[in-house]
Amino acid sequence: MRRVVFNQKGGVGKSSIACNLAAVSAAQGYRTLLVDLDSQANSTHYLSGLCGEAIPLGIADFFKQVLAGSVGKRPQVKVTATPFANLDLVTASAELADLQPKLEAKHKITRLRKLLGELAEDYERIYLDTPPALNFYTVSALIAADRVLIPFDCDSFSRQALYGLLAEIDELRADHNEDLEVEGIVVNQFLPHAALPQRMLEELVAEKLPVLPVYLGSSVRMRESHQFCMPLIHLDPRHKLTRQFVELHDLLEAAG
């Protein structure tokens, strides 16, 4: 199963959702890999504690090999072990931003799919964290994935952007990956006692949009999780937000 977490709007919790779902997957015994495709490298730092020049080679090095295009030589990617059992990482770095226009010019949009096909021999679950833009890396991830999760933070701007995002995914599915499935909209930073988010969700459900029935709450524990570079399942297994991530993960697995 290859699952991409994507929204063009920043600040909706893509990295937090991708990393915590991957961590739950690994904690439940699945051999799990997270591929970080965002030049900000938030997921890389979250799962490894590393940043800047301390980050090991990862997806940027793979794409550099793709651009070099040595005849008969297959590009390789370095996989980094995290401190958590069953959970590995393909790191991102700031270098991805410089590589993007070169990759677009060379039309290397399907190379990530080939790579994930090879990695799938070693991993049962692959999660992809993407930049907050429909750029080369995000399109590559959507072409390579089986499912897409869309984080949503119950904001009116997010709601307007959601319709365009779903249309773009439909177009990409038709052109490049007919098997891609919108697995659902993940409600994040939900305030259950606030009237506006509740009403907005009721309207989205009434419009038959694929809103998943597990709502992730807002908690300072998530920020502490980022600070300690420790997903919630390891930092605080009994916390309410941790239980919500486990419930969401199990819902997705059951839908299979």
UniProtKB/TrEMBL annotation:
InterPro entries documented for this protein: AAA_dom, DNA_Partitioning_ATPase, P-loop_NTPase
Ranges for domain AAA: 5-182
Pfam families, per the entry: AAA_31 (PF13614)
SUPFAM superfamilies: P-loop containing nucleoside triphosphate hydrolases
PANTHER family found in the cross-reference section: P-LOOP CONTAINING NUCLEOSIDE TRIPHOSPHATE HYDROLASE (PTHR13696), PARA FAMILY PROTEIN CT_582 (PTHR13696:SF52)
Protein name in UniProt: Chromosome partitioning protein
Organism: Azotobacter beijerinckii
